[in-house]
Structure formats: structure tokens, C-alpha cells
Design brief:
By secondary structure, the protein is of the alpha+beta class. The chain is built from 4 helices and 5 strands.
Length: about 140
């Protein structure tokens, strides 16, 4: 895939997200150091749990990930993909003027044109678009 960003300069906001990650980690180290400053070390076990675990960092991690996704979306990512177009449009134009009612072709020119049009429409594959236009002095769209 060939991804590009319409506003790539907005990706610089990811630096701010990275700074927030560094700030969060720094706060966690400072928090750990300040916990040791209790006057009685035996009180730490009663006041603070031994290992708060990774769950307490989950909310902050999700917020930072969401912020990174929002910044990426703000940069307007685009993916260009070529799709083969297999649709063809055929316009069948039928003359409906008075000259088509001549009988030089059996039974008449208009009946022969209708018969040929029906045969053609039945032979057209389903993936093709078909339009029928009649014209005499002016045109009119039939289908």
C-alpha cells in the first residue's frame, strides 16, 4: 500500500505525544522515589501496596495511544488504490422518423430496427450499461 498524508506537517504533533510519554515515565520514577521518604519504612506496606502492577498504567497508555491515533488522523492519511473499471455504457440510438415506416425492408424499417435492438439487448452481458435513445426531429431517452 502506498500511504501518503495530505497534511504531513501535522505529524510533528506526534513529538508532543512522545513528550507526554516521557513526562509520564518521569512522574512514575519521581513517585517511586518519593515513596521511600516515609519516616517509618514499615508503614509503606500498610499505606501503599507492594506492586501496584501494570493495570494502573493501562488508562494512561490507552489515552496516549488514542492521542497518537488522533494526531495521525489529523494529518489526513490517504491511500490511492487503482480499481479496474469493467463497466461500459452502450447507447442504442433508434431513428423513429417517418422514413423508418417505409416498407422496402420486410415488414418495415422500424420493425426491423426493433427486432435487431431486442436481439442486441438480449445478447449484451449483464455488466454493461445500456441506454436507448429514439430520435426523429428531436431526441428522447427511452431507457
Amino acid at each position: 500500500m502506498d500511504w501518503k498524508f495530505l497534511d504531513a506537517q501535522r505529524l510533528w504533533w506526534l513529538v508532543a505525544v512522545a513528550a507526554l510519554v516521557v513526562g509520564y515515565i518521569a512522574v512514575q520514577f519521581r513517585r517511586r522515589r518519593s515513596a521511600v521518604r516515609f519516616s517509618n519504612v514499615n508503614l509503606i506496606d500498610k499505606i501503599a501496596p507492594k506492586s501496584p502492577g501494570w493495570k494502573r498504567h493501562l488508562v494512561a497508555a490507552l489515552h496516549l495511544c488514542a492521542l497518537a491515533v488522533l494526531v495521525t488522523a489529523y494529518a489526513r492519511p490517504q491511500n490511492e488504490q487503482r480499481v479496474p473499471r469493467e463497466r461500459t455504457t452502450i447507447i442504442l440510438a433508434i431513428d423513429t422518423s417517418l422514413s423508418m415506416y417505409a416498407t422496402d425492408v420486410d415488414p418495415s424499417r422500424i420493425e426491423s430496427a426493433k427486432s435487431a435492438a431486442v436481439d442486441f439487448v438480449e445478447s449484451v452481458p449483464a455488466n454493461l450499461q445500456l441506454g436507448v435513445v429514439s430520435f426523429n426531429g428531436s431526441t428522447s431517452l427511452l431507457v
